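Please check this chain.
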Amino acid sequence: MMELSLIILYAHDVERSLAFYRDQLGLEVREQHGLDWVEVATGGTTVALHKFDGNALGEQQRTELFFAVDDVDQAYTTLRSNGVAFVEAPADQNFGFRTAACLDPDGNRVTLATEIAA
């Protein structure tokens, strides 16, 4: 069994991305090494913001984070009041979840999801 423990997001502006994840999404900083590497805790998985330096990943590198929440509609309302601009409002999906999505400052998709009761 494999368990996802770390997601690395390459950010052009780590300070701007940190403000999004810490101040708007409300995640706690776990570890920080200047503005080259910052880790935020999400419960079971750590998200690391790594300074993007034009390496071999290329400009099209994108990542999606999928966060399980108790009530996606409530989370959507709360985060909108924190200034988060969503690209998708809460909606039921055919794969058994109600989701809403926004983009972080570097275009990485952040999806909030609540499992739909059977």
